[in-house]
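Milestone M4 deliverable, item 7.
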Amino acid sequence: MNKEKKHRLLRRQLSRFNIDLDKNPELELFVNDVNKTYEHFDQELKINDTQTAKMMSKMTENNQNLQNIIDTIDSFNYHVSHDLKTSIINNISLTRMLNKYINSNKTEKIEELVSRLIKNSNNGLHLIEKYLEISKFESKLIDAPKFELNVKDIALDILSEIQLEGQLTVKIEEKDFDSIYMDELSLKSLLQNFMTNAYKYRRLDTKPELEILLSKEDAFKVLSLKDNGIGIDMKRHGDNLFKPFVRVDTNIEGTGVGLFIIKKIITKLGGSIEVESELKKGTTFTIKIPDK
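Output delivered:
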């Protein structure tokens, strides 16, 4: 922009007072300084606008994460209260029936009801233990120290610990990195859950496999975990997959807390997880964790 255009507005104002910039060099220097100051302010405003936009975006993301946490807690509390209430109601019903048959001295019915009462009580105790297990796990995560951990070494150790060597094939490709900065409990929990799920939800006509690819994307380390199992009906379970006690196949033994725990770990690390799955073809979980 030439001098005439650059100061057109100011010249117009000054001309009203019969002030000619060309005849006042010092005033011209002053005008130039003023112009530079405005340019500086303009740059500062642009930077502030950019920072404000980033802060708003981060605030929106944090609000969404907070809402997800609230929804998860609500879901968790619902399942705890519902399951324990159901167990107690069943016990009360069985006790009333037992009392009835005791009065009529029907030994066979009494034995049957006592057996059902014991089984139902054990199921209730098992539920309580699972809830306590989740709570203890969450408390351990709070102050867990972080280290540089070799993913392949820990994966192979876990495979041995859960006694799936020879039954589950685990392939690890270290494309862009081999170690990740996080606490050991979290990494072990992630890998163990994916390994046990790959074996538990296997297809009976195929030997179960879990492929782990370690790569990078921008400022994130990416763990891609692909199995060749029965897959997940995403239309049916996609929206609730990471909620507590959701079971993708009720015919397979489990508590439905594995993916719930995985989601909590990744959220705590400031990461994200995505799922792609097709029935009878397997599932791929893509985890992104911020690089330190």
